[in-house]
Amino acid sequence: MTEHYYTSKPQAASRPEEVTVTLRGRDFVFVTDAGVFSKGRVDKGTRLLIEHLPLPARGDVLDLGCGYGPVGIVVAAESPHARVLMVDVNERAVELARANLRRNGIDNAEAVAGDGFAAAGGRRFSLIASNPPIRAGKRVVYAWVEEARRRLLPGGRLVMVARTSQGAKSLARKMEEVFGNVSELAKGSGYRVLQAVRTE
Q1: How far is the first Cα of the chain from the last one, in angstroms, to the nearest whole number?
Q2: So what CATH class is 42-197?
Q3: 186-199, pLDDT tens digit by residue?
Q4: Domain limits, the chain
Q5: Helical (H) or strand (E) element with 58
Q6: Residue 109 CB-half CA count within 13 A
Q7: pTM above 0.90, yes or no
Q8: How buried is 185 (Cβ within 10 angstroms: 0-12 exposed, 13-18 middle, 19+ buried)?
Q9: Do 117 and 146 touch, CB atoms closer than 8 A?
Q10: DSSP-assigned letters across all residues of 111-166
């Protein structure tokens, strides 16, 4: 059975490699490794999410399921007055994210290991961004949607990306059910970027 990246301690032998990627018109350098999501490249869904995220000028941002860090690092670079928390259950991914923060000169973000929102303590956010671990199952992903509403400040946004053929439409229905609204920010390469806003 192939090990999945949604595990705290990957058993795959470490084989780090460096990639340079242009995102939102800027070049970033990331180290990736075996046992983490999308080793060796920024996958199409994450890229679509990054390119269409509504970036806040300031406030707290959560990159939920950060992997080796591309979403949180780009948000922190583009929004220098925001504070970005990056969390992932995968300890190898978090170590990579920390290294990538240093590599890209980011000082307004941190990466923490933990399962979902548990790593965020009691913090609340103006933006929660996620390329969720769809293969971990709806139980995990839908719990994230429900908790996200509680963790967002009024007017805060949950933005998620999902593959159209792997549950994007059912995810949109869940976001609509929990938040009372959902919109599609972008669609392309077989993915959809979905947004729900916490309204009072």
Answers
A1: 46
A2: alpha beta
A3: 999 999 999 999 99
A4: 42-197
A5: strand 58-64
A6: 32
A7: yes
A8: middle
A9: no
A10: EEESSGGGGGTT--EEEEEE---GGG-HHHHHHHHHHHHHHEEEEEEEEEEEEGGG
